[in-house]
Amino acid sequence: MRIAEFGSTCAIPEPYSSGLNLVRGALQDAGLSILGELDLFGGPDRHAVAPSRPCRVIYIDSPLLLFEALALDRAAAVFLPLHVVVREDGGQTRVHWISPAAVFGMRLPAGAAVPLYDLQTRVSDAIAPLGGVRT
Question: Strand, helix or coil at 105?
Fold first, then answer.
């Protein structure tokens, strides 16, 4: 089974730069925090193999869900923040996010399962109105 089968993909019919801004805005409007971003196109090490198209990883979190997860089980911190990948795909923008619960076969720490599910649901609900096709 491929890792891509564990997540969701959304195609937004916008060029990369405006699609990235739409994703950022939608996530923030949903009350989610953007903790940071990693530009994989330019890359921190220009000698490393980098994607041939613009690509960015956005680290998403919700302080309340993080607090809930850590209060129940400190091991939950390993699975947060959620990584959302935004990349150029021709004239549109693709957004990917992977479910840690699916990757680890639902063997998550007790405190992480519900907050992670809630975070993924909020990400999905935030990105869906952007007019993207979800696969």
Answer: coil
pTM over 0.85: no
Question: pLDDT tens-digit profile of 80-96?
Answer: 788 899 999 888 999 98
Query: Is 3-134 CATH 3.40.50.2300?
Result: no
Question: Where along the chain do its domains lie?
Answer: 3-134
Query: Which pLDDT score is estimated for 24?
Result: 96
Please tell me the distance from the alpha carbon of residue 7 to that of residue 98, in angstroms, as a whole number: 4
* Inter-residue contact 8 to 135 (CB < 8 Å): yes
Q: Are 120 and 97 in contact, with CB atoms under 8 Å apart?
A: yes
The amino acid at 45? D
Run of H or E residues at 29 = helix 16-29
What one-character-per-residue DSSP string does 35-51 give? EEEEETTT-SSTTS---
